[in-house]
Amino acid sequence: MERAQAIRVQRPSRWDQPLDASMSDADVAWLRTRGPFNTMNASSFPSATPLEGILRYDCRLHRAEPGEVIVREGDYGSSAYLVVSGSVRVLVDSLMPEQLGRQPPVPIGWLQAARRYLRRSRHAETRSPDQVRVQTSASGPPVIRKVDDRQAVFLQDFDAILLSHETVCLGPGELFGEVAAMYRAPRSATVIAETEAMLVEIRWQGLRILRRDRRFSETLDDHYRRHWLPIHLREVPLLRFLPEENLRRVVESTELRSFGRMAWNIDYQKQRTLPAAKQIETEPVVAHEGHLPTELLILRSGFGRVSVQHGASHRTTAYLGKGHFFGLDEILFNAFRAPAAPARPYQSSLRAVGFLDALAIPVESFAEDVLPWIRKEELPSSVQALFPQAIERRSNRRRRRSAKRDAHADRTVQPSPVWPTGEAESTNESTALLEFIVQQRLNNGRDAMVIDLHRCTRCDDCVTACSGVHDGNPRFVRQGPIHDRLQFVQACMHCTDPVCMIGCPTGAIARDPDTGTVLIHDPICIGCGLCAAACPYDTIRMAEVVDGKGRPYVDESATAPIRKATKCDQCASLPSGSACVAACPHEALVRIDLSEPEPLKQWLQKRS
């Protein structure tokens, strides 16, 4: 049989989409004369990703004017910034949300809610003028204006803000934003241009490759270890009572591990269609079932799939998120086992789902610096019986002494995460549900909408209620992937990893620090659509807005319609909470946190 002729095509390259298509050879040559690029050894980089290529395709020159907000506290970013000339100010303490144009929703009472409903406009997506444009009063929110070819946010009364807030000045050669870029974390501070400044924006892909230069890599590692790693370790409940000297040694021995692709949303649509077994095969292995544990893994960001060998494939038993441990049961069993008993290997495997970032504490450091300070009640029940009474009493005494030295510890730590049942055999039904949730990346949802199809009568009262609250345009459609009796509705899930927030030029889409709700702030939304394009679940819509009489708002210069991003806001101002849930006459709908398996499991048990 004659073989079909092959079709020759060009292999896609990660540099097919440069960060800035206008970067020229002259720009690259100029950057090579500036620190730290002028001291980098070009031979340290492979021929496929040369230093000049990183500067050309992974960097962008960014001119900032005085008072311009470069990054905002709480934003998620995928780029770091290097100051080339001029200076910027890092605000140590936080600005008020209103100063960044983020007006938090104001809760209203039942009477006000009723009046709002009765007086609602008959036109969809109605906005008042204040909701469409940024206010321009001297003490009000920021203003938006163009710098070169981009929209930029400027603080009003900038000099007074600098005088009233503690700040740190950064000058030429200094880097900021690298922690958020490298570890998919929210920005920890707001940075504002103090003078006219030239910055180099470096996206995370290039930042990782630049670490091939030893001096640059050591600088990044040293900065993270000195300033951020102790904070991140203190947030782990298991480590909260460590004395400072013990914590210092743990910091020195801890390694940073990353697996998978940070831009997981790009591959989402393709991977979600794969059968579960095939999808598991594509996921990077973090730890192998049957191997002896050499380190305790603490998940910093992203998600991991816990699975056990089942015939020729693997069966999902749990999924893990930020703050969870992997390998703790086995390490504790080995620490307390009888001298003649064999060491216990990993009872399951851990794989990165899309992207996973973890801290790895060697077992030797864990045994010497952490184990004596552990509280028994914080251990999983499967190993509590192995915890010797002598160690428990000694640990309690040390904990009390430590608490007296640092009374602030109890007020700053986060609650212990739910312990996953990663080593327990699950039924075929629960395994299928876990694999479905991971396959569809629904485990990213902190507030997913789930419908019990056995109770749902398809009356659409939920959609009608949402439409009544949101200007005649419901923020979701009763569609979405279905597993058995459950439908996971296509509504904003207020994700743990909100990739929609990456790249918003004005910070109009942001997470409320108190509730965790991801909100659109209309006055500073410029309608660019980047959030809608980035959302892997297709839950953000761009809508043209009108006034109370149905007249469309148009741009003054281009006469183009004004568009705003729209999405579920959890009915943040309503006394009833989510209108969709309150309106369901059959209690078929729930908003639930899927970042942990336990809430959904408990909800299903109540309905069985």
Automatic annotation (TrEMBL):
PANTHER family, A to Z: ELECTRON TRANSPORT PROTEIN HYDN-RELATED, OXIDOREDUCTASE
Entry keyword annotation includes Metal-binding: yes
4Fe-4S ferredoxin-type domain sequence ranges: 447-475, 484-514, 516-545
Coiled coil: none
Alphabetic keyword roster: 4Fe-4S, Iron, Iron-sulfur, Metal-binding, Repeat
Region described as Disordered: 394-425
UniProt-recorded name of the protein: Cyclic nucleotide-binding domain-containing protein
Pfam families xref list: cNMP_binding (PF00027), Fer4_11 (PF13247)
Highest taxon in the source lineage: Bacteria
GO terms assigned for molecular function: 4 iron, 4 sulfur cluster binding; metal ion binding
Residue span(s) of domain Cyclic nucleotide-binding: 57-210, 238-366
